[in-house]
Specification:
GO terms for molecular function: ATP binding; ATP hydrolysis activity. This is ABC transporter. The protein is α/β, with parallel strands linked by helices. The protein is about 30% helix and about 25% strand. Strand 6, helix 7 and strand 7 form a beta-alpha-beta unit. The protein is globular and about 70 Å long. Bound molecules: adenosine-5'-triphosphate.
Length: about 290
């Protein structure tokens, strides 16, 4: 699709794109936090923004949420410039920030019911509490919740308005492995229901499991955008073929693993002992990218 810029961009691209960003810059008193980012997040996709501490993820996301002012560049979110966003736009967007809101003496149920009142099209609060796995804590005061349970409450508040677009900033930080898997199930359900999701995360397994596409931000620049399987030519470059010989294990690095396996099969006259073909993990390519960007 032709990408439009200028006055027509918000109108036309809003049909297929939940988010469009062109030449986004953010400077904090001489420090450049976001340095010319171009990005599209398609409607209905789960997009994960990766990057080391201080890369500019939160700044970018908070500009798109309408919470921070950009220095320059263009951005539209659901067809609207987030800087000019109004109450009607806020109804369509769900936000889960990094820091937890404090509601002290209110119960989980009270908080979720309270937030539901802000939305014209709110979901059933009790059903949402159930979906985020807090059913057995619905009567608990929020101050007694564990870190992971507070995070689930944040997610409940992010989705109570049935958002078209959900922002999740490091949603599973502090979750135990079981809670993380349950949360992934919840995100998949939301995505299957058509919600567009932009998440930031430091967990590469989370990005790999959830995201249709990932973007890697390094020093305020987006250095790569691709599917998790293809990022950094992961799917095509540099496979390692491993096998066992009577003298011990052997490995060969190759761009043509099929040819190596065929050669080995001929050499062994059939099955190759302990044959493995591995590609770089998402973590391998990510670490290479953030090293290369420094
Ligand atoms: N309000 C602010 N004033 C000045 N500098 C800021 C401000 N907010 C962020 N920064 C700086 O901008 C850069 C990007 O920060 P940002 O929080 O966007 O990074 P991040 O990728 O979200 O990091 P993390 O993974 O640690 O959350 C950092 O160098 C940070 O110190």
């Amino acid at each position: 699709m032709k990408i439009l810029t200028g006055p027509l961009m918000p109108i036309v691209n809003a049909v297929t794109e939940a988010i469009t960003v062109r030449g986004l810059h953010k400077r904090y008193k001489g420090h450049v936090a976001v340095d010319g980012v171009d990005l599209d997040v398609h409607r209905g996709e789960v997009f994960a923004l990766l990057g080391p501490n201080g890369a500019g993820k939160t700044t970018t996301v908070e500009i798109l949420e309408g919470f921070r002012k950009r220095t320059s560049g263009e951005a539209t979110v659901l067809g609207v410039d987030p800087h000019d966003a109004d109450a009607a736009w806020r109804q369509r967007v769900g936000i889960v920030l990094q820091s937890t809101g404090e509601f002290d003496d209110l119960t989980v149920r009270e908080v979720v019911h309270h937030f539901a009142q802000y939305y014209r099209n709110a979901d059933d609060p009790d059903a949402v509490i159930e979906r985020v796995g807090l059913a057995d804590k619905r009567g608990a005061r929020t101050r007694v919740l564990s870190g992971g349970q507070k995070r689930r409450l944040d997610v409940a508040l992010g989705i109570i308005g049935r958002p078209e677009l959900l922002f999740l900033d490091e949603p599973t930080t502090g979750f135990d492995p079981e809670a993380r898997r349950e949360f992934w199930g919840l995100i998949r359900q939301l995505a299957a229901g058509g919600t567009t999701i932009l998440l930031t995360t430091h967990y590469l397994d989370e990005a790999e499991t959830l995201a249709d596409r990932v973007g890697v931000l390094v020093g305020g620049k987006l250095v790569a955008v691709d599917t998790p399987a293809r990022l950094g030519n992961r799917g095509t470059d540099g496979a390692t073929v491993g096998w066992r010989t009577p003298d011990g294990p052997r490995q060969e690095q190759t761009d043509t693993p099929t040819a190596v396996v065929a050669r080995l099969a001929e050499q062994f006259g059939g099955e190759v002992p302990d044959l493995t073909v591995t590609r770089p993990s998402l973590e391998d390519v990510y670490l290479r990218m953030i090293g290369a960007g420094e």
